[in-house]
Amino acid sequence: CKSMAAYVVKLDITSLTCRLCDAKIEELDELIDHLAKEHGKHYDREIKGHIMPFRFEKNREKIKCVLCSNEFNNFKVLFEHMNVHFKNHVCEICGSGFINRRTLLTHGYRHLT
């Protein structure tokens, strides 16, 4: 069984809507707060480190990072970029941060050459 830390879920927040009351919501944090305040639904905030929110821009084919507004052509590049924002796992050699252990281990091979 793999650890939860190895997983990252991509979450499209282009059109966030509360499924309980159909409220339109812009950001993931707003949805979490709305669910708690309006509906008494709570969720483990630690899981947020395993969610990679993204947003498609209207009339564009690019994927937008919701943390800094950079745009990317595909998920692979967005995923690599997310290492800038998430320091869940840090390389002891160079200090680079990674979103999960798997990407840290892959990065480690660069230091072997």
UniProtKB/TrEMBL annotation:
Listed GO MF terms: zinc ion binding
Alphabetized UniProt keyword annotations: Metal-binding, Zinc, Zinc-finger
InterPro entries: Znf_C2H2_sf, Znf_C2H2_type
Domain called C2H2-type: residue spans: 89-113
TM spans (from-to): none
The UniProt record lists the keyword Magnesium: no
Name this polypeptide is given: C2H2-type domain-containing protein
Organism (species): Pectinophora gossypiella (Cotton pink bollworm)
Upper lineage: Eukaryota, Metazoa, Ecdysozoa, Arthropoda, Hexapoda
